[in-house]
């Protein structure tokens, strides 16, 4: 119990201790080089990366509000017919996601009835339980009831991609950053008929968002013929990164194109129905093509005082990492580490009793008030007795501060750096000095 009480009392007493830094000059060139190098690296990091590259002095907003309208133009043909926009663009509403059909498998003149199935894994109707001859050869298969003939047995493939690379796609986009009340679009205004005669060029026609389908596929790094046969998804990414500290003309869209692997248009099916001799007939179309996804993102920034102050304070605080690193090297790896520890850490006691008034108490804490009167004598013994008679709130003064250097080589000659003790520390360490105070 006594030990626990002593430990608790010691922790409680240490809780009210105050620590203040002590400045020590260490004459060591290697340690000084490390210290300045760390400070320089931290300074370069904050000046170049944080403030110039990241622009951390700005308030930012990501994800602008966006609206996209698209329109496709062009005519193409297959082996049996001519196709216009209303037939090969799905859906036709002109949204940010649409598909352009480049290959179809057509099963014409399907009627409701019974017929042989082609694949047992993909039944095209309800099985009747009868076994009937296959379409070709002497083999037999199950009979199904549904739209006949079935798709896999009578479909004809048609390629629409011969003229598809010349299809033009208008992508109209408008963005808005609500935090900064900033809006802008990707179409050049004030030029009559401009969009009728232009196509997109990053240098000369940045604000003419009319793209050829072949150009989009090429910029995505794909072969158009292969993609038109198998189908695929291409993203058109519009990036609006705007520094609003500059003029609005400096905020421009940047376009990029990317093929999304593993995604395609694996045979979207639709049918066209009509009447023949009073019975319902349909033409089944299974379509493959290129799906276009228009994706808009961006970030806007503008100067703000709060993030500037926060990042400046962080930079100034981080410079202190150099002192921490050098202190660790000094006290852990360098020679005379015990001497350095003794020089770096001092303990100063405060008075345990009040001398009577707060000005005197403050002066005693700061070490500026004279000690209680006592006999003055030149006798060293009497001086020692006078020092022993000092009140308990005066702690023995530490050794006088000095500039520390690495120990020199054992050569003849005087010490390279032996500074004189400061008058104030000498007075505090000397009884006679205390008497003179």
UniProtKB/TrEMBL annotation:
A Gene Ontology molecular function term of the record: ATP binding
Keywords: ATP-binding, Cell membrane, Disulfide bond, Glycoprotein, Ion channel, Ion transport, Ligand-gated ion channel, Membrane, Nucleotide-binding, Receptor, Transmembrane, Transmembrane helix, Transport
Membrane topology: Multi-pass membrane protein
Record field: transmembrane: 33-51, 312-334
Keyword Transport part of the UniProt annotation: yes
The keyword Ubl conjugation is assigned to this record: no
Positions annotated with a glycan in the UniProt record: 166
Protein name per the record: P2X purinoceptor
């Amino acid at each position: 119990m006594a030990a626990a009480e002593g430990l608790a009392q010691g922790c409680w007493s240490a809780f009210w201790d105050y620590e203040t830094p002590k400045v020590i000059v260490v004459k060591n060139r290697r340690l000084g080089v490390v210290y300045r190098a760390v400070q320089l690296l931290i300074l370069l990091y904050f000046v170049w990366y944080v403030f110039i590259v990241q622009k951390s002095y700005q308030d930012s907003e990501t994800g602008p509000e966006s609206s996209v309208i698209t329109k496709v133009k062009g005519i193409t043909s297959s082996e049996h017919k001519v196709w216009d926009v209303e037939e090969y663009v799905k859906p036709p509403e002109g949204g940010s996601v649409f598909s352009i059909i480049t290959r179809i498998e057509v099963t014409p003149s399907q009627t409701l009835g019974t017929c042989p199935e082609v694949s047992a894994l993909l039944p095209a109707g309800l099985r009747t339980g009868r076994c009937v001859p296959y379409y070709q050869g002497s083999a037999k298969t199950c009979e199904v009831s549904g739209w006949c003939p079935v798709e896999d047995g009578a479909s004809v493939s048609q390629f629409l991609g011969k003229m598809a690379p010349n299809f033009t796609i208008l992508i109209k986009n408008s963005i808005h950053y609500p935090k900064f009340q900033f809006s802008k679009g990707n179409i050049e205004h004030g030029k009559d008929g401009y969009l009728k005669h232009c196509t997109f060029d990053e240098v000369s026609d940045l604000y003419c968002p009319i793209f050829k389908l072949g150009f989009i596929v090429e910029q995505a790094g794909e072969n158009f013929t292969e993609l038109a046969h198998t189908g695929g998804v291409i993203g058109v990414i519009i990036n609006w990164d705007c520094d609003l500290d500059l003029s609005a003309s400096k905020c421009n869209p940047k376009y990029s194109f990317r093929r999304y692997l593993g995604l395609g248009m694996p045979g979207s099916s639709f049918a066209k129905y009509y009447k023949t001799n009073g019975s319902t007939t349909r033409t089944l179309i299974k379509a493959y093509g290129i799906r276009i996804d228009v994706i808009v993102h961006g970030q806007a920034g503008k100067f703000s005082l709060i993030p500037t102050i926060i990042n400046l304070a962080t930079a100034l605080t981080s410079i202190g990492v150099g002192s921490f690193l050098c202190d660790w090297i000094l006290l852990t790896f360098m020679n005379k580490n015990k001497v350095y520890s003794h020089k770096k850490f001092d303990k100063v006691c405060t008075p345990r009793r009040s001398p009577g008034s707060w000005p005197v108490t403050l002066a005693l804490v700061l070490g500026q008030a004279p000690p209680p009167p006592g006999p003055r004598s030149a006798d060293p013994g009497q001086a020692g007795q006078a020092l022993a008679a000092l009140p308990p709130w005066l702690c023995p003064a530490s050794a006088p501060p000095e500039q520390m250097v690495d120990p020199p080589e054992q050569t003849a000659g005087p010490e390279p750096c032996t500074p004189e003790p400061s008058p104030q520390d000498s007075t505090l360490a000397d009884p006679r000095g205390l008497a003179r105070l």
